[in-house]
Amino acid sequence: MIIPTATGRKEMRHGRPYLVMTRQFRAPIEDVWAAVTESDRLARWIGTWSGDPADGTVQFQMRYEGDEASAEEFVIDECEPPARLAITTEAPYEEESVTWQLELDLAESDGVTTLTFAQSVPDPAMALSVGPGWEYYLDRMVAAESGGDPAEIVFDDYYPAQSGHYEGEFTP
């Protein structure tokens, strides 16, 4: 079994700890933007949303977390197509409710679009599971957007194998 390589880093943003990961796509920025904002494109690799984004919130439903995952309200803090999306959500984590900030920034150069994804991590210990989880989902996105099969990306290859990569302090 080949274990995927963890690529994320830990850093401080806005005075809070964040996990930050990048992925690159040989695609125009508008295409990658669609992959992270259009419900039918999201469905291929992570989940779907419903509602009217013009209202400032949508209901997001994870599709690959098992039947027990309930929809979460995503508050759209910033939306600057096709370059930036920032979202806040409150979601269950283990036995508590946690507020997460998510940031997606896109930049295109020479036909390659780079997605930089960041998520706040209120407790640094959460990085041990959240980091591998996002590595998994972002690799599913790469598969979906490059003509591969996201179903071939197996969560058990990521967690707990990548947890050690996310140990330690967050850097300013």
Automatic annotation (TrEMBL):
- The source's superkingdom equals Bacteria
Which SUPFAM superfamilies does its entry note? Bet v1-like
**Pfam family, any one:** AHSA1
Activator of Hsp90 ATPase homologue 1/2-like C-terminal domain spans which residues? 26-143
Q: Which InterPro entries match?
A: ASHA1/2-like_C, START-like_dom_sf
The family line of this record is: Belongs to the AHA1 family.
- Protein name per the record: Polyketide cyclase
